[in-house]
Amino acid sequence: MVFEMKHITKTYDSVVANDDVSLHLNRGEILSIVGENGAGKSTIMKILYGLERPDCGEIYVNGKLCRFHDPSDAMAAGIGMVQQHFMLFEQMTVAENIVFKNELRKGPFMDMKATVDTVRQISERYELKIDPLARIADCPVGLRQRVEILKILYQNAEIIIFDEPSAVLTPLEVDALLETIRGLAKAGKSIVLITHKLQEVMAVSDRVYVMRQGKVVAERMAGETDIAELAMLMVGHPLASYEIEPPKPGATLLETKGLKLVENGREVLSDVSLHVNAGEIVGIAGVSGNGQSELIRCITGLEKAMGGQVLVGGKDMTNRSVREIRDAGLAHISEDRYVWGSAPEGSLEENVLMARQDEMPYSRRGIMRPKAIREYAARLIGDFNVKASSPAQKMRELSGGNAQKLIVAREMSLDTPVLICCEPTRGIDIGAMEAIHSRMLQRRQDGAAILLVSSELTEIMSLSDRIYVIFEGRIVGEFQRGSMDDKHLGLLMVGGSIEHGQ
Amino acid sequence: MDNERNWKRALLGVVDIVTQPLIAVLISFLLGAVVILVIGKNPLLAYGEMIRGAFGKQVYLMNTLKRATPIIMGGLAVCIAWRSGYEAMGGEGQMILGAVAAALVGYYLPLPGWLRVLAAMLAAAAAGAVYSMFSGWLFERFDVTFVISTLMLNYIANYFAAYLCNYPLRDPEANVYQMQNAQTGKLPESVALPPVMKGWVHWGFVLAVLAVVVTWFLFRKTSFGYKSRMGGLNPRFALYGGVNARRMLYLVMLLSGVMAGLGGSFEVLGSKSRYVDQMIFSTGYAWTGMVAALLANMNPIGTLLASVLLAGLAVGGSTMMLNMDIPLEVCNIIEGIITLFMSARMIRIVAGNLRRRKRAKGGEAA
Amino acid sequence: MTYLAQVINSTIREITPILLVALCAGVCSKVQVFNIALEGTLLMSAFFAFLTHYFLHNIFLSIAVAMVVAMGMTLIMSFFIVRLKGQPMIVGMALNTFARGFTTFLLSVIFKTKGAVNPSDLKGLTKFDLPGIKQIPFLSTVFGSLTVIDYLAFVMAIVMFVIMYRTVIGFRLRALGINKSAASSLGINVPRYQILATTLSGSMIGLAGCLLSLGRNAMFIQDISGARGYVALAANNLCKGHPLGAMISSALFGFTTALARSLQGTAIRQQLLQCIPYIATIAAMAFYNAYAKAKSKRRNRGL
What we know:
CATH topology of the largest domain in chain A: Rossmann fold
Radius of gyration of chain C: 20 Å
Helix content of chain C: over 70%
Radius of gyration of chain A: 25 Å
Oligomer: heterotrimer
Mean pLDDT of chain C: 91
CATH superfamily of the largest domain in chain A: P-loop containing nucleotide triphosphate hydrolases
Low-confidence stretches of chain C: none
């Protein structure tokens, strides 16, 4: 047994994140911890890694009682963690990132030659290819993750924690990652894999813990269980599946023609043409960072396209202001709820009012009408089951799922013919996700044209009537519902093609 | 349980708002007392003098209100810009140009009395607005940060005003041999903001209070206020919601500049009757206004109160200087320390630390 | 020719205080502590350098005191920003207000004046001549009556470059400035690094302060820093915190100030001349940003 955690409890204010959790890891084993978002699996690993301190409970590493005050204690005990959000210094090189905190030095100076050599050696030993002198900013996501893994290997970690490692990867990169994980275990490292993707769990792990609402609810050997059972245990009830009526597409409400955008000398959008008809949901599948965000920003007026056209409801809206485009009948659930979609320090009322501030009855000749605003906010909160104590509460006090529901409520109640949904369910629990999905399908039935951008392939596949695949700013494929399979899509998403036959 | 939590949170909020200024003021006066002790004076007597000199008699109180007038306007300029997310500090330069413009128009424009006053105020507002919008333009067009552009523009305005009142606009009747700051010609009696009543403060103060109300109304009750506030809280959110960021920037800078410019004109029309070299720069009206706005957490009405208090500090300080021979700058020291201790959200941080420590202890005990 | 040499000489003397302050600003910006207390720090250290020298007649002690005062001010600044999460702009302005009040207060208490103190019997920093330079006609004026600290300023720029870009500690500082949470996830105590780095770099402002009050003759004038702290902030903004770049950007501001001074006594009025360095600061930043924008636009068009 390389580590054991006993009776760990952790609360944040009044939320119990971990409730009497006990688990252990054996040498050379690949252990998975699965659970929904908010089940407490990240918290327990943060405690093991010294990022959080438990309220009570004990941690033993190699049989010795440990108390970690910060990550360096955990590292000293041989524990390393590949975080979900990469912890890298963008403007520095791969080698510099790997040696940070344990630099090779010549007196007070950096020994760059030895650094590069050492990094190269480790990368060869574990067969993780990288260029030590490349800048992180120029590395794709898969490579960045490799740098994170190498960083931990460089620190001689014996226990490696992966926190949702596949969330940002393409299907091919996921395969490579799983291969790496197996290799590490074979080399004698002990692995903890935190994820909610059950296929991966079944593919690599030896043993699985299932967490729900802060508790460990089950422990299974991988050979003795299957995806269906794990899913049941995770959610606590069988999953609902959508009944989707056949689409009744109408007129084209949103269209782009040959959209083009260049940033920092790189073409981020080239010749993007697509259309969305009334009464259909059109998905854009792609690995994040392939131009989806820029495409949406160009359509919604947040960025100026350098060529091409955007038509909303048949009217040319290319490079018009956000206001004009919204007035032409477009609403937009933004990809990041706190960066674009809300003002976390503002009240719920203020957040709900956005885009309607100049409309009757909420304001008249520039004077606001607080009563109407409050009623409107209360109505949306009620209609969309947002758990909030009052409309005057601050946005940041809402949980992620409730904040997202409020944003969805705001944009959907604008009742526009065109609706853009970017990552509408990122990082929220299944209940909120189902609610948002059924609202989207409802709007589709009502004849809205919906453009859905998501990095979750399953979300795109289950909701869309048509799918465009985007890769490096180009549309590289278009599929109708039923004529697509995820292998083929996955291949296109990473730039493969049928001719290459990869 | 939930009710109790809400109640606690509300209480903590009130504590947060009220306690911090009190503690900041207390600490700064304590440190000020140390300074006074060091030079061998009695701090209690000194503070007594200060309070008496600021609020003790009607004359003193009126003096305080007179001094508060430009401070309020400078504070409003900061409130308007900062609440909208533009951390501009150009109030000083705008106020200087406003004062010069008022002195210039008031002196030369051949209009009957009250029209000339109005024209002078308009000119001051315009001068402040243009200067303020210029820094907005530098920001929008060239990404020159507000901190640097406005600080530089303050110095430029002050030197330019010094040039004007030393040469082209110099008072023709000034005595060349007299050792004093250069000044522009004295405005005629009729071109002034007269006292509200005999022995009272001039109308400028009333206008400043009016400006406070207008600002409050703008922020609380209009969609302009909503949009600028959202822009301040999260500029991307405002953009995403269809707020025209460019227009808001210029509108906000315009308003902020108008306030500062008017502040300068009130000082000229209500008090000095001319522009005297360094009259805004050396008194630090704009900076004090900024401190006031900060003490009030960018709330216009709070800014009014804080401005009066800070003006009292300065006016009382001069009494203290005259009667006890303590340099006036004690007030600047106190002002600096208040600002410093207001900058951090200390109450919350200290409380948070205590709570965490308590919890950690509880954790270890369990 | 002599005139040119004099202009260059006065340019150098204008550059060095700004350069030293800009180097400190560079460290602060690299570790993400926004420091506009530079101005007040400079003023305080200039004052205390003068005060120590006035009473103790010891130049080394004066320099030491100035450095300690500057480090103290910077420590307060970074403590309030990093530990107490104060708004950097307000912390800085508070310290500047304090410094202005405090120096003027002591000036009037000790010297009974609010203007200038210029005791004729007090000598400034010792002048340092490069060996053999006296004989060379042009260069002797160019490098005439410079102090050790003037030379030290340029040496410091190179030293700071080596520290920031070649040593382990500099590497860590730059890295944590890029991504604080990444650094702390590896167990680096980010606040401690930030406070230590800024405080130590504050000592350079102390040197700059000595140059102001003891550089030519020993004297102190109210507000002697004259916005040099802000100008240095702008200079640092232009060179993006690079110590060698700071030499160039400070040179720009030093030159405009020297130019303004050398034009004194011509037809242009003094007050207008005094505006030149500030106008140049804004213009330089605007031009630089416009140039960078245009460049990236060209790159985007070219594709």
